[in-house]
Amino acid sequence: METNSSDVKKLDRKDLMGVFWRSWRQDAVWNFERQQNLGSAYTMSRVVGKLYADDPEKRARALQRHVEFMAITPHLSTLLYGILTAMEEENANNPDFDETSISAVRASLMGPIAGIGDSLIWGTLRIIAAGIAISFSANGSILGPLLFLLIVNIPTIPLRYICLFKGYELGTNFFKQFLNSGIMDNVTYIASAVGLMVIGCMTASLVSFQLPIMVGSGKFAQPLQTYLDQIMPGLLPLAMFGIMYFLLGKKIKTTTILLSVFALSIALAFFGIV
Q1: Are 44 and 88 in contact (CB under 8 A)?
Q2: How far is CA 264 from CA 1, 242, 267, in A?
């Protein structure tokens, strides 16, 4: 069935920028049942309102599918929204379009995009930013929090913008080809390795745990810490990190671990052990 060119509904740059700005508030109404679903519906509501302005029934169905469960990394969410926007536009103009495919694509791409975003943004970039920021903040510098915000936002703001327009331009085929090529597996692996290196550096430089206990007698007495540093610098911080990792692996609550560390630190300091 052909559509008259005068009846074609076409989104413009202003509409896409509306999606871009609304995506920033995606987590504003997060909930435990469907997580980011309300933010997702809000992000798409301007597009849906314009495309289905003359069809209340289609508009209602569109909003209903966008209020379903949503869990995605906010910084890469615009890639999915760009794809969904292109599909909604096609659905508005093509009577033969299967609108259930929009929900299917939404559900199927949500997880892979979230996996990539969590690895690159939360698991790597945020860790690097935190390591640099903590180093400055530990010395009382205001640059700490400022650098954290800059390091996280300078790359991710343009990323949001590019992902939205590329997603809209290329549709679903590009992302599926990108996943199937195996390139993302290599990128994710490298990013994970960098993140682990940063965690190791933070452990060695920011975890302070030294033993003032003296070994020997008289003028030959040396702090036990000196001998430990000769074996391996940062051995005790590494051991503490290993213990924390082991306890987390045993599913012990983070709150319990933190309170135990506080209590143990106070006790060891009181008796002059550390």
Answers
A1: yes
A2: 75, 16, 5
CA distance 203 to 195: 12
Reported as a single tens digit per residue, the pLDDT across 52-81 is 999 999 999 999 999 999 999 999 999 999
Host domain of residue 243: 208-270
Q: Are residues 153 and 242 in the same domain?
A: no
Whether 31 and 69 map to the same domain: the answer is yes
pLDDT digits (tens, 9 = 90+) for 216-227: 777 777 777 777
Residues 228 and 120 in one domain: no
Q: Are residues 248 and 174 in the same domain?
A: no
Do 33 and 85 fall into the same domain?
yes
Does pTM top 0.70 for this prediction? no
CA distance 42 to 35: 13
CA angle 70, 74, 75 (to 5 degrees): 145
**In the prediction, which pLDDT does 2 show?**
46
CA distance 86 to 47: 10
pLDDT tens digits for range 29-43: 888 888 999 999 999
- Tell whether 150 is covered by a domain: yes
Q: What is the dihedral of CA 48, 49, 51, 56, to 10 degrees?
A: 100
Q: Which residues contact 68 (CB under 8 A, 6 or more apart)?
A: 34, 37, 103, 106, 107
Is residue 182 one of the residues assigned to a domain?
Answer: yes
